[in-house]
Structures are given as C-alpha cells and as structure tokens.
TrEMBL record:
Domain of life: Eukaryota
Organism, as annotated: Lasiosphaeria hispida
Record keywords, A-Z: 4Fe-4S, Iron, Iron-sulfur, Metal-binding, Pyridoxal phosphate, S-adenosyl-L-methionine
Protein name per the record: L-lysine 2,3-aminomutase
GO molecular function, one term: 4 iron, 4 sulfur cluster binding
InterPro entries in alphabetical order: Aldolase_TIM, Lys_aminomutase/Glu_NH3_mut, rSAM, rSAM_sf
Keyword Iron-sulfur on entry: yes
Entry-linked NCBIfam families: KamA family radical SAM protein
UniProt keyword Isomerase present: no
Cofactor needs: pyridoxal 5'-phosphate
Length: 517
C-alpha cells in the first residue's frame, strides 16, 4: 500500500527583484503534473504492472509577467486521495532580460521563455531516436562545419550527419537529448563541441575497444541480491527503480540496462514494477547494517512525484536507513523542471527532504555536470530554489577526453558548481565500458589534475578524484593505487572494505586506453 502523502506547510520566499525588470514569480497551489514518458509503463499497483505518466493542466501566463496557477486539484495516489494545497513557490524571480540562448537554435528561434521554461514543452520537444535526430540535425547544422579544430578543413552537413548516424548504429546507448542540453551546443562547430562529444557518437571518432572493456564493467548484476538493487559496500546499497533517463550519456556505466535497445545491445531493462520495488524494500529492511541508499537508475527524474514520495517516505520509515540520495542528471540537462510550478517533481523532493530532516535523517540530490557550458542562468535559478529550500545538491563528474580533461575546464566547472551551491563531490575516472575508448583518459591525467587543483578552492568544495574499480571493487581515490606502470598502463588497487563474493584481499586492475594519449 502506498504511504499517505504528507503535506508540507513551508514556503520559501525569494530576494528582492530589481525595479523595472519583467519577471515571473509563482504563487498559490500547484497540480501534480506528470511528465510524459513513454518508456515508463502504467500506474504503479499491486499486480506488478508498470507506470504510465499523464499530463495535468499547468499554470498559465496572466499577460502581466506572472504565472497564474490553477486551482487545487484532487488526486488519487494508491489508496489515498489528497488535495495539493501546499506548494513550494519559485524562490527567486526569473528576470526576463536573461539571455534566451535557445533562440540561436534555428528550430527554436521563435520559442518564448514561457514555452522553453515549461517542462511539458521540454518533454514534447526532446530529440529521441535516429529519425528525430536526423530531422533535427538537418535543420540546425550549417552547410559546412569544421573537420579539424583549427577550421582549416571543412566537411559538409551531409558528411557530418552520416558520421553521427553511423556512430549511433555502433553505439551501446540510444539517443535522447532534451531541448535544454541541445540548446547549449555550438552548432557552428558541432564536431568539437564538448556537449556533442558526450551524447552524440561519431563513427570517425570511435576507437577499437580495449580487450578488458565490458558492458557491466563494475559487475553490478553479480552484486545484486535482488533485481535492481546492488549491495557492494557494507553499509550502502544502490536501488535502481527505473532504467530511463531524460538524456542518455554515451559513456553510461549502466549501458547494459539503461535506455532502449540498440543495434549492438539488448538491454536488461529495469521496469518500475511494484513487485520488484517491494522485493528491494524488503531486502533493505532485512539488512540492519545498511544505513545509506542511493536511488538511481536510469534517473530519478523519470519517477512521478508520487513515486518519489513513496520511495522517500519508505526509506525514512526504515529504522536502519540514516541517509539516502536521489541520483539525477536532470539539473544538468533539464533544469527548467525545477522552475516549472505546474510540475510536482521538485515539490515532492523538497517535501521528502523536509520529512527526512524532521526524522533526523539526511536526503540529498546527486547530479551530474561535466562541462561549464552545461550551466546557464536557468541552472542558477533552479539551484537557488533548491538551496533556499534546504535541499543538499552534490555533483559527480566524469573525466572525459577532449571534454574536461584539462585544468582550465575542470577548475571552471568546479568553481561554477560551488558558486551555485552545488557541492563538487566526485570526479570519476571514466569506467571501462564498451564503445567509449575515445573518451577514456590515462590514469595519469586524473592524478595530474588533482595535484594541480588541490588548494585552488576551499577544501570543502574540492571533489574527490576516484576510480570505480572494474570487477566491483567500489570507489577508491585515484592516487591510492598500489602500483601504476605507465608503460603498460595498468594500475592496481585494493578495496579492504569490500569483501563480498570472495573479494577479500582481491587486487583490482584499471587499464589505460590503448589509443593515443
């Protein structure tokens, strides 16, 4: 039985607005707007069926620079009916003089701020699958784009698009990109854009896989006592309620399960069924040594608000659980959802955060920015709203070749995250998953970065530079290797705290990419 929704009575005001600026500010009641996600099945119930999101009517513009919210709505969640009367309004007014950067993309040059800031519009205009990608690229890529970084050689639009579509055929991850992240791309030079490099594979850039690469390089399936729950550390487990994301990363560590099937991979999909979730909850409750749960996937953004509440309230109710985090890239690829007062996801998150605090427990949002170009004024407004609401947000970046593998880019990223009260938590060495050899860096790169960055920012804003050990050894500081042979590219680690599945005293090996440095 779903737990009864707790109604929060806390509202969070914002700072004064500069006189003369046209602004949007929310007020009043909010509906439980459900994002349109075709991948996530039908309503959560007791027969194990999957979950189907629906749209509700959202807030409407007044014509005077403000949103007019709809009246309270009655909503049935499981065995309970609740009236949504206690919103969390946008903490900071959105100044309309901010750069409407999405208008630089030809297909969105006439899209208003109202539309772009709507999560419903974002979902409807997400580019998903090869056919939509082809249509989008034909509309936004110039006739000629640089082939090399100096711009001395050019390639035609058709050549670039063919390179991308051939890459999609060879990739392990399906294509899905939100309008927000697509609008942060420099389409005048897409081949060398750090965002394109993360999400759109180009066949000409792919390199042969290292022989040690694997789809499930961290052996998550082997460390799962029940489907969708990875228990590797003594006091922490990873719960995977869904296998859908708002945007798919080419280098996904969970490429064995996340997203739609591709030409190269049939996914071990994790459908969000009640039966599977209950098995996971029962296991967590049966382990008194478990104190910390990461709720990931997929992506927690693809949980409906009532599902988010269900999971959060269930974890809060467990005496053994002291901390939990929702993992979502949403703040990086679709921050408009946090500001969209017609959508209930962030309000559910804030309510859960407050409930956890009242229970003496800690909840956090772990997000995933990799490059400063992903951060805009919309990110800042969304982050400020979360900060004022008391939600802890931490970032986990991945070190990627020609994306963020230099001091200037990584230091700028960390500084901007810190300035937005997003705590830099981890910088990961790229996992040894298939089809990403062109994105991996030698271990020496992450060692050099950490050595140079240490001290450039306050210690509590300095991330840990880590390797998630192949074979299920868990995260270890990159600099804590037992040995590192730069000639062979093999580094060796031990993980004393990880002892399950005969891992005691095991030595784990990470392999540098074979290709050029």
């Amino acid at each position: 039985m779903l737990s009864k929704i707790a109604q929060s009575k806390h509202l969070f005001g914002g700072p004064a607005v500069t006189p003369g600026l046209k602004v949007f500010r929310s007020a009043g009641s909010l509906p439980r707007h459900r994002a349109q996600v075709t991948d996530v099945g039908k309503a959560l119930d007791t027969d194990g069926s999957t979950i189907s999101p629906l749209f509700n009517t959202g807030a409407t513009p007044t014509g005077e620079g403000f949103y007019r919210p709809p009246p309270p709505v009655q909503e049935r969640v499981g065995d309970y009916q609740a009236t949504n009367t206690n919103p969390h309004p946008v903490a900071t007014a959105i100044a309309m003089h901010r750069d409407e950067f999405w208008r630089k993309v030809p297909v969105w040059q006439d899209v208003s701020a109202d539309e772009f800031l709507s999560y419903r519009w974002s979902v409807a205009n997400t580019v998903q699958g090869s056919a939509k990608l082809l249509k989008f690229l034909q509309a936004v890529v110039p006739e000629l784009v640089p082939l090399d970084k100096s711009g001395t050689q050019m390639q035609t639009r058709e050549e670039f698009i063919k390179d991308v579509l051939d890459g999609v055929t060879a990739a392990t991850m399906a294509i899905r990109m939100t309008p927000y992240i697509l609008s942060r791309v420099n389409w005048e030079d897409p081949r060398h854009d750090p965002i394109v490099r993360q999400f759109l594979p180009m066949k000409s850039l792919l390199m042969p896989d290292h022989p040690k690469l694997a789809l499930d390089s961290l052996h998550e399936t082997a460390d799962s006592p029940v489907k969708g729950l990875v228990h590797r550390y003594p006091d922490k487990a990873l719960f995977l309620p869904t296998s859908v994301c708002p945007t798919y990363c080419m280098f996904c560590t969970r490429s064995y399960a996340v997203g739609a099937d591709t030409d190269t991979v049939t996914k071990a999909s994790l459908k969000p069924t009640r039966r599977r979730w209950e098995d996971a909850f029962a296991y967590i409750e049966s382990q008194p040594g478990l104190h910390d749960i990461v709720v990931s996937g997929g992506d927690s953004y693809y949980l409906q608000p009532e599902q988010l509440r269900l999971i959060g309230e269930r974890l809060i109710s467990m005496p053994n659980i002291k901390r939990f985090r929702f993992a979502s890239k949403g703040l990086a690829v679709a921050p408009t959802r946090v500001l969209d007062e017609s959508d209930g996801w962030v309000n559910a998150l804030i309510d859960i955060s407050n409930q956890a605090k009242r229970a003496g427990k800690a909840m956090a949002w772990h997000t995933h920015f990799n490059h400063p170009n992903e951060i805009s004024w919309i990110t800042s407004e969304a982050s400020q709203k979360l900060f004022e609401a008391g939600v802890m947000v931490r970032n986990q970046a991945v070190l990627l070749r020609d994306v963020n593998d230099n001091f200037e880019t990584m230091s700028k990223l960390i500084r901007q995250l810190a300035d937005n009260n997003i705590f830099p938590y981890y910088v990961y060495q790229c996992d040894m998953v298939e089809r990403v050899e062109h994105l991996r860096t030698p271990l020496q790169t992450i060692l050099d970065l950490e050595a140079r960055m240490r001290g450039f920012i306050a210690g509590f804003m300095m991330p840990s530079f880590v390797v998630d050990l192949p074979g299920g050894g868990g995260k270890r500081l990159a600099c804590s290797f037992q040995s590192y042979d730069r000639g062979t590219g093999i580094s060796k680690y031990t993980a004393p705290a990880v002892t399950g599945r005969d891992k005691e005293n095991k030595v784990y090996e990470y392999y540098d990419p074979i290709g050029p440095p």
